[in-house]
Amino acid sequence: MYTISEYNEAAKCLSDRLGDFNPEVLIILGSGLGDLAEICPDPIIIDYKDIPNMCSSTALGHKGRFVAGILGEKRVLMMQGRLHFYEGWTAEQVVFPIRLAKLIGIDKMIITNAAGGINTSFNVGDLMLINDFIKLNGMNPLIGKNLDEFGPRFPDMSKVFDREYMQLFRDTVSSFGDSVQEGVYFYCTGPQYETPAEIRAMRILGADAVGMSTVPECIAARHCGMRILGITLVTNMASGILEKPLDGDEVIAAGKAASAKFCKYVIEFLRRLS
């Protein structure tokens, strides 16, 4: 378990590397959605491996670096690649960068992911606003000694995703003549894809999409008091819905296909964000 001194050491290193640049929004870019970082003008790039105590991403399509700059007139710190439990990291290691963001003064987070569609009214390429999540496994970044510097022992999770941010994103997408789905995200640790029977059970429980990330970071962010916007890109239909096997290359390809619209929506959302 990390000590507050180890968090502070890493936060100071990140802050020093950023210099006079003080980010106000953390953006976590999911599989295939890293292009947002590529269009950031005059970026400050910091590899995860250069931050003390921080792990590097090994997942397909995740570069493993921070990219800081101006997007939509806001100062943003982007994670071009996240950490997953299935990579072998502990729950606390997975959420380490969220706590760093809090320590350098960030209180807003946009978190994105690529996920399988459970709701049969969804199509590949749809964006879904996350309005809640389901987590039935034991993976939890808050287990262990509570660090009061970040938040309370028993944080409330009744409104993880900020309703004002959700409406602002809906309005943003509507301004382009488009629409966005909304639903519940089911968290699985992976790395295997779910079975058709598991997907049927998730649908009964009320899930609309399923993926292997996002929830640990959101738990840590809410523990820290951050306001959160969660966006899922439906990159495939979940197991058993279509008669074809699932693979990671399909996920990356779908992310690339949706990249342009995703980028314009997020940039305009940032421009409207107060």
Q: How many helical stretches? A: 8
> What is the level 1 CATH name?
Alpha Beta
Write down the Rg.
17 Å
User: Termini distance?
Assistant: 36 Å
How many structural units, i.e. domains?
1
Percent range for helical residues?
Answer: 25-40%
What is the CATH topology classification name?
Rossmann fold
Shape: globular
Order of helices and strands: HEHEEEHHEEHEHEHEH
Which segments are poorly predicted (pLDDT under 50) over 5 or more consecutive residues?
none
Strand content: 15-25%
Structural class: alpha/beta
Name the CATH superfamily assignment.
Nucleoside phosphorylase domain
Mean pLDDT: 94
Order of adjacent strands in the largest pleated sheet: 5-8-7-6-9
The CATH architecture designation is 3-Layer(aba) Sandwich
* Main beta-sheet annotation: 5 strands, mixed, barrel
The total beta strand count reads 9
Notes on the structure:
A hairpin with a 2-residue loop joins strand 3 and strand 4. This protein has a single domain (4-272), classed as 3-Layer(aba) Sandwich (Rossmann fold). It has helices at 4-18, 35-38, 91-94, 96-103, 163-174, 196-205, 215-223, 248-272, and strands at 25-29, 44-47, 65-71, 74-80, 108-117, 127-135, 181-187, 209-211, 227-237. Helix 5 packs across helix 8. A five-stranded mixed barrel has the order 5-8-7-6-9. The mean pLDDT is 94. It is globular, with a radius of gyration of 17 Å. The longest helix has 25 residues, at 248-272. It is built from eight helices and nine strands. 32% of the residues lie in helices and 23% in strands. It has 274 residues and is α/β, with parallel strands linked by helices. The chain starts with a helix and ends with a helix.
